[in-house]
Amino acid sequence: METDYSHMELSNNTEIGDSEFQDFERTDVKDMRLEAEAVVNDVLFAVSNMFVSKSLPCSDDVAYINVETRERNRYCLELSEAGLRVVGYAFDHVDDNIQTPYHETVYSLLDTLSPTYREAFGNALLRRLEALKQDGQS
């Protein structure tokens, strides 16, 4: 099958003004607070408590999340472009002496911190598969 494309003439004036470029840059910036809220909503079902910190500063490139696992362990997590990592062992507490690895996903991080999270996640997955199976049989 052949497709006939008509050619468009491109304007020779393809320069972008400084103000237009700055507007484009602003729309491309991630808001880490929104990213952190999405992380919390993804896994709240499998932990005892989880929320974005209101006392630690959020910016375009970093946000802090407090999480309490079902084992009752508390952590302060840093979310950045590098990923997620533990930065403290209490809510709203950043310990600059802690050197923990970054994780690409919240699932990976919680999987290393909480065996109960792993179990809750697996159970939720099984329930979802069962629901899909039931829908397929209807």
Structure report:
Helix content is 39%, strand content 17%. The chain is built from four helices and four strands. With 138 residues, it is of the alpha+beta class. Mean pLDDT is 83; it is low at 1-29. A hairpin with a 5-residue loop joins strand 2 (62-68) and strand 3 (74-80).
Q: What secondary-structure arrangement, pairings included, does this model have?
A:
Elements: H1 18-28, H2 32-43, E1 49-52, E2 62-68, E3 74-80, E4 83-88, H3 106-113, H4 115-137
Antiparallel strand pairs: 1-2, 2-3, 3-4
List key phrases describing it.
4 helices; single chain; alpha+beta; 138 residues; 4 strands
Strand order of the largest sheet: 1-2-3-4
In N-to-C order, the SSE pattern is HHEEEEHH
Largest sheet: 4 strands, antiparallel
Q: Distance between the terminal alpha carbons, to the nearest Å?
A: 40 Å
Shape: elongated
In summary, what is this structure?
This protein is of the alpha+beta class. It is built from four helices and four strands; from the N terminus they run ααββββαα.
